[in-house]
Structures are given as structure tokens and as C-alpha cells.
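--- STAGE predict ---
source: upstream dedup step, 1 unique chain passed
mode: sequence only
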Amino acid sequence: MASSNRGSWSTHDKLAGLLAVGLFAGYFVRPMESIVVAVVSPVLSPLAVWLPFSLFVFLLAGSTGLYTAVLQAKLRDAEQMERLQRKMKTLRERLQTARDESDDDEMERLRSEQRELMHHQVQMMKGNFRPMVWSLLVTAPAFIWLRWVFTSPAAAVAPVAFFLPVVGQVAWTATVVGPLKVWLVWYIGASVSSGYVGRKLVRRAA
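--- STAGE serialize ---
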């Protein structure tokens, strides 16, 4: 998938980035959405019919959340970024001390070291975009398809409502607050919770 150097982008990373940009256009461009739906529907539609739909949405969101968590653990070097941030903090403190003591030579040396650390930090930040690019290859098609299901009358896959304990029957397309619909809140909640659990499991397994 990606090169062993976490801070650099391989050819595969760059190709994945171009594909991710194209998929992201599916959120806004109807023809791209139609292409994504046509590709994904043969896989997801049968599952949506076979499983209870609320469970299907939960599992779909949970799978994408777990996939993203694993990618972040694999492609991001969080420990190195933390070490770099600690070095930057220590360097700023030393620079302030040199400034208070009017030590021009020390200030110049520390500024040079600070520029070098900032360069490394920028490279690390660029590398940290890689997990997002690879995760979009899965999360974007899944979300675009799900949004299409709830907004297209031709989909005929999703039930009108589902049952929640205490609350009762709730329409999937009911508004929770602002632009947030019930289905979107359900999806985000499942994705975030599964991602959190996934990161915990990955850390323990590491």
C-alpha cells in the first residue's frame, strides 16, 4: 500500500490521493455520485436487504471507523510527532532564556535548530495526510452510497423508520438539529465509537 518511510509519499500514495480527490467530488458532483453508487450497490444493497437496516448502518459505519483507526496506527508515527513537539517546546524555552540573557550567539544557534525542527514538523504533517487519503477510498464510497439511499426515491432499500428503545419509531430522515439527520447521527456515532475502540485495540496489539 504505502512505502515504509512514514514521512514520505510513494507513487501508490499519490495515486490513492488522486482517486480520493475524485471520490470526494462524489459528494458534490452528481455524475460522480452515480458512478460511485453503480460500483458500490452490488456489494452493499444485498447486505442492506439481508440485515436489519439499523444494524447494517451500524456495521457499515463501524467497519469504516475501524479501517480508519488501523490505517492511522499503521501510517502515522504519533510517538515521533510527540517527541518533535516536546523538542520544539524545550527549544522555545531555551530561546527565551537566551533572549533574556541577551546571548546573541546562542539565539542564532537556537533559531537555526528551530528552523530545522520546523522543517521536520512540516514533513511529518504532510505524512500524516496519508492515512486520511487511504481511508477515503473506503469511507467516501460507503458514505456517498448511504446518502444516496436516503435521498433517492429510486433506491428503495432503506425503511422509512426504525425503532429506538424509549423513543419509539424514528424516521431515518428526521432532523435532529440543523442539517443533521437521524441517519447521519447514527452513522457518525457508530463510526466514532468503533474508531475509538479500534485505536485502543491497535495500541494494545502493538
